[in-house]
């Protein structure tokens, strides 16, 4: 199948894309590699830090203010879109999604471009793990036993309620970004395994050890999602959605992780998991690239862990097996690719299910522009 046939539609030479932040993220290089399959593509990129490897992979790079400063961040995105004549804004980091969705119409009208992001209502639920677990539970999806905690006292209380006496728990900020803030709670020190044989990572600690580390009170928006820690097979699912309608849905196992990043896995055609992902995306009316993460319990039942309503860092590996999802997302944003007439999931691709993949790092010397 040629690059210009279904599922990617007609060629769009010279398309101009902005990745507003994340040029220093591990997945940036793979996403750029996928986008380079577009003829004569122009990629502008940003990051809150000046010296990042992605500055050398993009056609243009600028330091972008943190999205925590809403007005300055949006003004910078609009300015970059105008300066670089951007057609598609393609975000790859979680923190900026809410602002881009909130100001989507303003950015599109001001800079005559398309912003690839879900509408704010569904995005707000998908991005907040506490809201997501409540939503999923109320709509019949499996989620681990959970509680949202606001500080030290509720952490200890809810940990006992979730069964820390006989099983492991874990926690993560409800508004987490990547693997930041993730922790594991074990019943006692003897459950931590042979840590001297393991590589550096998240060190499991007992409830008492965590109790002295958790602040007495967490600030607004800094609550933690405390949940039962599942030990079965883990899956990440890469999707492309058109306002809730799922175009592509590719599950892959997470066979090896480094710092929360998938570095090995296998593409798994799990029809029941695909169906669950599609139902959830439709209920939330998600739009554009979406990632979902699931994990099995000891009996093999699959539970929802989180949603990343954006391109995931490991999405680029799909291109090796037959689906260039970043490129498809750009073409869909521009109204190309014959997506509206699709009646089935994963139509039009000859995907190599069952293939395994590995990822590795590559060095880059930063040069003055």
Could you characterize the architecture of this molecule?
A five-stranded parallel sheet has the order 3-2-1-4-5, covered by helices on one side. With 369 residues, it is α/β, with parallel strands linked by helices. The radius of gyration is 21 Å and the shape is globular. The model is unreliable at 1-10 (pLDDT under 50). The relative contact order is 0.16. It has helices at residues 28-35, 70-83, 97-102, 104-111, 120-127, 129-138, 152-161, 207-211, 271-284, 318-321, 325-333, and strands spanning 16-19, 42-47, 60-63, 88-89, 114-115, 146-149, 169-173, 183-186, 205-206, 224-228, 234-242, 245-253, 256-258, 261-266, 288-296, 302-308, 356-358. It has three domains: 16-116, 3-Layer(aba) Sandwich (Rossmann fold); 123-127 and 231-358, 2-Layer Sandwich (D-amino Acid Aminotransferase, Chain A, domain 1); 145-228. Helix 5 packs across helix 6 (129-138).
């Amino acid at each position: 199948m040629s690059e210009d046939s279904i599922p990617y539609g007609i060629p769009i030479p010279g398309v101009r894309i902005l990745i507003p932040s994340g040029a220093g993220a591990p997945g940036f290089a793979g996403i750029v590699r996928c986008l380079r399959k577009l003829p004569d593509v122009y990629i502008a990129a940003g990051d809150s830090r000046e010296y990042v490897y992605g500055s050398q992979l993009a056609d243009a790079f600028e330091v972008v203010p943190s999205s925590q400063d809403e007005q300055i961040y949006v003004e910078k995105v609009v300015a970059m879109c105008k300066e670089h004549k951007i057609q598609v804004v393609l975000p790859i980091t979680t923190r900026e999604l809410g602002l881009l969705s909130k100001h989507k119409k303003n950015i599109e009208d001001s800079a005559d471009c398309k912003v690839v992001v879900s509408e704010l209502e569904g995005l707000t639920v998908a991005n907040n793990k506490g809201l997501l677990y409540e939503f999923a539970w109320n709509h019949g999806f499996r989620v681990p036993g959970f509680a949202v905690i606001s500080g030290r006292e509720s952490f200890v209380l809810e940990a006992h309620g979730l069964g820390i006496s006989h099983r492991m728990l874990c926690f993560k900020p409800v508004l987490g970004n990547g693997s930041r803030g993730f922790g594991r709670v074990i019943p006692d020190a003897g459950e931590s395994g042979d840590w001297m044989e393991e590589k550096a990572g998240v060190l499991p600690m007992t409830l008492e050890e965590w109790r002295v580390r958790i602040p007495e009170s967490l600030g607004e928006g800094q609550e933690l999602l405390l949940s039962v820690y599942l030990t079965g097979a883990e899956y990440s699912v890469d999707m492309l959605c058109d306002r809730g309608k799922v175009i592509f849905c590719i599950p892959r196992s997470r066979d090896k992780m480094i710092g929360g990043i998938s570095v090995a896995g296998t593409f798994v055609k799990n029809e029941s998991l695909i169906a669950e992902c599609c139902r959830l995306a439709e209920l939330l009316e998600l739009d554009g690239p979406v990632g979902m993460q699931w994990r099995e319990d000891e009996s093999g039942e699959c539970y929802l862990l989180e949603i990343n309503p954006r391109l995931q860092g490991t999405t680029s590996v799909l291109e090796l097996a037959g689906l260039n999802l970043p490129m498809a997302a750009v073409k869909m944003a521009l109204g190309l690719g014959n997506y509206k007439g699709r009646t089935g999931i994963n139509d039009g691709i000859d995907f190599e299910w069952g293939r395994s993949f590995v990822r590795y790092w590559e060095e880059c010397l930063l040069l003055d522009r």
